[in-house]
Amino acid sequence: MNLLLMLAAVSGAVAVGAGAFGAHGASGVAADWLKTGGHYQLIHAVAAIVALRMDARGPGWIFVVGAAVFAGTLYAMALGAPRWLGAVTPIGGALLIGGWLWLAWTGLRG
Questions:
Q1: Distance between CA 74 and CA 26 in Å, rounded?
Q2: 50 touches 20 (CB < 8 A)
């Protein structure tokens, strides 16, 4: 079993569901949070799979974890969690940026 591949695939499925709910089942700022979270989570689910196929597991894991933190806090707030969770969202974003930089470094070392 490849845990990273499985988590990236589930992450992609969750992203599609969140984006669809944001587009059709939510309104106002909650809809925006769901769509933004879904967008970033889906991109990074695919990026994690690509990184895995490039034998760059580290960046792949960072993409999955960063997307979970970034999108997860947005989803939680959209569903009524306290807004202070918005202070945690940038941590996920920083992880995503770090994953891209790590992937770049991996490519440079080649």
A1: 13
A2: no
pTM of the entire predicted model: 0.95
Residue 15 burial by Cβ neighbours in a 10 Å radius (0-12, 13-18, 19+): buried
SS3 of the chain: the string is CCHHHHHHHHHHHHHHHHHHHHHHCCCHHHHHHHHHHHHHHHHHHHHHHHHHHCCCHHHHHHHHHHHHHHHHHHHHHHCCCCHHHHHCHHHHHHHHHHHHHHHHHHHHHC
pLDDT at residue 91 is higher than 80: yes
Chain CA centroid to CA 36, Å: 10
| Cβ count near 100 (within 10 Å) | 16
Q: How far is 68 from 96, CA to CA, in rounded Å?
A: 10
